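Let us work through a complete example step by step.
Step 1: write down the sequence.
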Amino acid sequence: MTNNPLTLLSEHACFGGTQRFYQHASLEIGLPMKFSVFLPPQASTGPVPALLYLAGLTCNEETFMTKAGAQRLAAELGLALITPDTSPRGAKVPGEADSWDFGVGAGFYLDATQAPWAANYRMESYLTAELLPLLKATLPLDAERIGLFGHSMGGHGALTLALRHPGLFKSLSAFAPICAPSQCPWGEKAFTGYLGADKSRWLAHDASALMQQSASAPYPGGILIDQGLGDKFLADQLHPELFEAACAAVGQPLLLRRHAGYDHGYYFVATFMADHLAHHARQLQA
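Step 2: predict the structure and record it as tokens.
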């Protein structure tokens, strides 16, 4: 794909594989975008399955790779890890850096339809129509074995993109996802700004609503969600019980694990990372 050359910013040996950080000129976003890739040792001999991880509010393409502790087990399992940034950078939209939960670092993994955000805030199309095809064409990744997971806002992104793009992702999980963004303050703020005031349009980006609309279980192998009960955002922002009910209504297998004492941060994510990688490895290698 000569229109999107990758610029390697740095490369680091890591558990027998390589940790890389890239930048490229995104056609969908209209700006340079950064992302990170961990390639396990097995990638030196042929294509490997890959997991796309979507990070949460205020994070970037480095957060997961430096905090989640995923590379060691990913190397053992032969899984590549991909983490994009969480929003465009440098769009110069007025007010885009005024708050931590909207604008820069808070793209919510959708395509904005409202001015002035619609021109650059196109994270859904960027990920599904540009970044993944680009990486499949340029790196030793198995295009038929791609899994998706994420944390918080990125958990919302993982659940919604997996449901909105059937067949693109073979496995799915999330850490403390925003499960019903049309019914929580974070989602209401983001959806009003990016999608407009018509709440009926919000449901197309609400994981619980999307699951309710499924004719059958979209992930028969099961979805894994971990949620800390010490999470200060649980009651007002996350609503896993609504996604749980939606899955039950359509017969979607869901393992929703609730953990006493764990909060919303990366100590929680790192604690259960091995379980998520194993969950994906089972489905991607089946």
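Step 3: interpret the result. The radius of gyration is 18 Å.
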